[in-house]
């Protein structure tokens, strides 16, 4: 097959000497998106992709399966509840309020705000009485959230816009007259290349100028810190947490707001300088509930007195489980025997257990619809005997289930609103051994009536930041399997499937374990006859893009096709762009000699070798991505196009006006169709 010639990309003799080691960077010039040369190269890549793209084979079926819509877990405030829902024809989910009589009203509709579909709803938080709603929106994928507050009864705006609120929690005080929130310092007050950082916690009084906001916390701490803030339902207890970037540990403080003013809370240390993650829930019964992985990698729940929140006073209520990871909990107390519902993931599959609230004794389990993923157990803030939780699996669009602790029954409370015919598939969880003998699990989804014999297969993974790959409804996966392929999802080290130790076994100096786990997953699929190297495609995004970038440079012979989305690939310079400086706690820093050695050891951009027959590769990147700069894909794409001796193409799909996260449904359909079409062409589906 004769492929189109690649756009010309000059190779410069740029070499950095870092820790006495030469580090070539021939495509450094592609780091400047505004240069005429970069723009010209991108136009050439766009033309090449358009010629190679071909018809989108799967587009109509992906769109059809996405017509399932979606529904979110309710948040209760007084008699009202708040929830999100996307109907079959909507581009974005809409946020609603339901009155006690069941009447529903749309509160925030992104398409009503912006008919182009480029505006996304990033976060919502009703106040404690359900009378006001704080919400955050951003435009064009930049995730630079702007905060507004509206009156729930009338929909009238009462506050905003307040900018620089990216990733801000909203902690309402009772009465809705004030809230704590997190905001970045103005760009005029920080160095130009640090404008994405330098967050602070503020108190804002509704109806006043943000110029009058009082800084509560964060002065003098690390510029890459993220802050959490919450206020107990009764308004007495303020909780502030600090994470250094994405580090799997936090410092934590509390203040009794009855003993100090809300604008000068007397914060006391709960934990500081401790290598663990901890969060607090102030119970209606006066007890302090502590969710922590301190001395418990898989998590536990302890209890204490709010007046004595320190570690020395914690005692186990729900101890660590040796096989399951404790994810969340809810308290149901309108019962003769109050209970705690505890959410767990056991090898990436969710379950909920029921425990005596006083003693922690296990009383039973909450019935769930199947082997899938449970999201967010919700209770009424004032107490009750009911709980709600989200549920999905590989063939079930999102649903909301209601559990009644008086009867012990779980019933469907709300389903995704679209009726779709889902293909019949078979899901199996398999166990394989990685290079060092570690057992790793993988979900393998195949046609229900599949005959024996190898099939075109997509292997997907992530393996980072403690994020778990759990079962969920996916139009792309179902479309691929319905067409006769197999889709496999590996639960690699670096994720959270087996707790914090599992995460740490795949971060910093241990990152190669993640790549070894992925190669071993591919080898298992081949050895067991599921697929062959000529039929195996791999896919990953963000940290998963780093994963497949390392896979294609370390083991190019093992894979026929690669889709690498919004990837980190230049691991020597990643900290200099986007939010990279917040991730050195996960990967390490090239400024440190030892950590530089880890990074250079696997950095995909630096391991592209000349005269190698690389797999067919498609990079998909997003021009407004403020987390991972597209330069990673641009530079590596140029390097692969120069180096590969294969007749299989290396392509770039560069999309404008979208970013790293949420996007409209139609944009999602286009992206999924392009990636599946590419993978099908090069794996023989």
Automatic annotation (TrEMBL):
GO cellular component terms, A-Z: cytosol
Keyword Hydrolase (UniProt): yes
EC number(s) recorded for this UniProt protein: 3.4.21.26
GO molecular function, one term: oligopeptidase activity
Gene3D superfamilies: alpha/beta hydrolase, Prolyl oligopeptidase, N-terminal domain
Recorded superkingdom: Bacteria
GO biological process, one term: proteolysis
Catalytic reactions on record: Hydrolysis of Pro-|-Xaa >> Ala-|-Xaa in oligopeptides
Pfam families the record matches: Peptidase_S9 (PF00326), Peptidase_S9_N (PF02897)
Keywords annotated in UniProt: Hydrolase, Protease, Serine protease
Residue stretches making up the Peptidase S9 prolyl oligopeptidase catalytic domain: 473-684
Span of domain Peptidase S9A N-terminal: 7-414
InterPro entries in alphabetical order: AB_hydrolase_fold (IPR029058), Pept_S9_AS (IPR002471), Pept_S9A_N (IPR023302), Peptidase_S9_cat (IPR001375), Peptidase_S9A (IPR002470), Prolyl_oligopep/macrocyclase (IPR051167)
Family, similarity comment: Belongs to the peptidase S9A family.
Name of the protein: prolyl oligopeptidase
Top-level taxonomy: Bacteria, Bacillati, Actinomycetota, Actinomycetes, Streptosporangiales
């Amino acid at each position: 097959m004769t492929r189109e010639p690649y756009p010309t990309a000059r190779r410069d003799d740029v070499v950095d000497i870092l820790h006495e080691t030469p580090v070539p960077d021939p495509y450094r010039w592609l780091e400047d998106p505004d240069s005429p040369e970069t723009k010209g190269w991108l136009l050439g890549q766009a033309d090449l992709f358009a010629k190679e793209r071909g018809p989108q084979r799967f587009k109509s079926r992906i769109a059809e399966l996405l017509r399932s819509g979606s529904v979110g877990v309710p948040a209760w405030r007084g008699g009202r509840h708040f929830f999100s829902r996307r109907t079959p024809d909507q581009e974005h989910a809409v946020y609603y309020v339901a009155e006690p009589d069941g009447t529903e009203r749309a509160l925030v509709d992104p398409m009503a705000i912006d008919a182009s579909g480029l505006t996304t709803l990033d976060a919502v938080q009703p106040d404690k009485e359900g009378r006001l709603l704080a919400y955050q929106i951003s435009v064009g994928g930049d995730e630079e959230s702007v905060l507004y507050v509206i009156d729930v009864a009338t929909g009238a705006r009462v506050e905003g816009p307040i900018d620089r609120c990216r990733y801000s929690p909203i902690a309402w005080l009772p009465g809705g007259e004030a809230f704590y929130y997190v905001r970045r310092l103005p760009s005029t007050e920080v160095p130009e290349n640090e404008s994405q950082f330098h967050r602070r916690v503020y108190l804002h009084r509704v109806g006043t100028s943000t110029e009058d906001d009082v800084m509560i916390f964060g002065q003098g701490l690390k510029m890459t810190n993220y802050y959490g803030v919450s206020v107990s339902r009764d308004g007495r207890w303020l909780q502030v947490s600090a994470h250094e970037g994405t580090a799997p540990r936090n410092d934590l403080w509390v203040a009794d707001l009855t003993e100090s003013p809300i604008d000068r809370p007397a914060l006391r240390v709960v934990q500081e300088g401790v290598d663990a993650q901890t969060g607090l829930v102030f119970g209606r019964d006066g007890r302090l509930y502590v969710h922590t992985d301190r001395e418990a990698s898989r998590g536990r729940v302890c209890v204490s007195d709010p007046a004595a929140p320190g570690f020395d006073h914690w005692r186990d209520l729900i101890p660590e489980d040796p096989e399951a990871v404790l994810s969340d909990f809810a308290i149901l107390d309108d019962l003769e025997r109050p209970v705690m519902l505890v959410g767990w993931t056991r090898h990436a599959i969710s379950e909920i257990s029921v425990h005596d609230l006083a003693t922690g004794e296990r009383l039973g389990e909450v019935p769930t619809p199947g082997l899938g993923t449970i999201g967010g157990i919700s209770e009424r803030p004032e107490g009750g005997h009911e709980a709600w939780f989200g549920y999905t699996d590989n063939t079930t669009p999102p649903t909301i289930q209601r559990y009644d602790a008086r009867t012990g029954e779980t019933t469907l409370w709300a389903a995704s609103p679209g009726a779709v015919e889902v293909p019949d598939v078979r899901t199996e969880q398999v166990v394989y051994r990685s290079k060092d003998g570690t057992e790793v699990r993988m979900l393998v989804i195949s046609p229900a009536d599949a005959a024996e014999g190898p099939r075109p297969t997509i292997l997907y993974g992530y393996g980072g930041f403690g994020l778990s790959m759990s079962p969920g409804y996916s139009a792309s996966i179902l479309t691929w399997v319905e067409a006769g392929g197999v889709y496999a999802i590996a639960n690699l080290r670096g994720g959270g499937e087996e707790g914090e130790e599992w995460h740490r076994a795949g971060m910093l100096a241990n990152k190669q374990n993640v790549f070894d786990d992925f190669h071993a997953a591919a080898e298992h699929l081949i050895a067991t006859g599921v697929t062959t190297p000529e039929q195996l495609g791999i896919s990953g995004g963000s940290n998963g893009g780093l994963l497949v970038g390392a896979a294609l440079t370390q083991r190019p012979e093992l894979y026929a096709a690669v889709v690498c989305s919004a990837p980190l690939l230049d691991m020597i310079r990643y900290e200099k762009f986007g939010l990279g400086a917040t991730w050195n706690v996960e990967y390490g820093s090239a400024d440190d000699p030892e950590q530089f050695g880890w990074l250079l050891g696997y950095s995909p951009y630096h391991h592209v070798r000349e005269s190698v027959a690389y797999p067919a590769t498609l990079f998909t990147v997003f021009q407004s991505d403020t987390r991972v700069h597209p330069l990673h894909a641009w530079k590596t794409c140029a390097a692969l196009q120069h180096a590969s001796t294969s007749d299989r193409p290396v392509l770039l799909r560069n999309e404008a006006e979208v970013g790293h996260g949420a996007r409209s449904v139609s944009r999602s359909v286009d992206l999924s169709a392009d990636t599946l079409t590419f993978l099908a062409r090069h794996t023989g589906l």
